[in-house]
Amino acid sequence: MLHILFLVALLFSSSSHAADFCVAKLRGAGNPSGYACRSPANVTADDFVFKGLAAAGNTTNIISAAVTPAFVQQFPGLNGLGISTARLDLAPGGVVPMHTHPAATEILYVVYGKITAGFISSANTPYVNTLKTGEVMVFPQGLLHFQINAGGKPALAIVSFNSPEPGLQILDFALFGNSLSSALIEKTTFLDDAQVKKLKSVLGGTG
């Protein structure tokens, strides 16, 4: 009897270990279910460690901010686990413009500094707060949201997502960083031609 129980336990143990993780094989194409799994024989402890968040991002840019992602593309060990993270560096005056993550809810933790953050609900109600060190805010999946440095010193936050690939669409670039004709943008945003062309020139759009 004990021999049979041991064999049953071994069988269940072997089958469960095979599904413990699915380190991404990034050379193949991804899909909404994730990437194909690398062979467990080719997986090491390093696949479950990501060191890219240790260094501050370069905030010398138009938004005076940097986002360093640890999504599945950078951290293949996240594949299939339903989580990811990123580092957010905001220089004084820095801003992460209105954007959305179509595939994930985001939670932001302020490591240091002061950050004004908020989102807009589907009923067009804004929810805004100024967060200090140690405080947290959540941004529901798919809703437009933003972060702004609210102090005169650099700010750092760590954000987490309930998806290994949350997706990202920045509103300004979606409107003015593409080849959609200026006439169509003017018609759909009620902006005049000069404003649209100025924003296109700043954000790299054409048309």
UniProtKB/TrEMBL annotation:
Keyword match NADP: no
Compartments where found: Secreted, Extracellular space, Apoplast
Disulfide pairings: C22-C37
This protein's name: Germin-like protein
UniProt-listed SUPFAM superfamilies: RmlC-like cupins
Pfam families with a match to the protein in the record: Cupin_1
GO cellular component: apoplast
Binding site for Mn(2+): H99, H101, E106, H145
Domain Cupin type-1: 51-197
Positions with a binding annotation for oxalate: H101, E106
Chief location: secreted
Domain of life: Eukaryota
GO molecular function: manganese ion binding
Keyword Glycoprotein tagged: yes
PANTHER family found in the cross-reference section: GERMIN-LIKE PROTEIN SUBFAMILY 3 MEMBER 3
Signal peptide: 1-18
UniProt similarity note: Belongs to the germin family.
Keywords, alphabetical: Apoplast, Disulfide bond, Glycoprotein, Manganese, Metal-binding, Receptor, Secreted, Signal
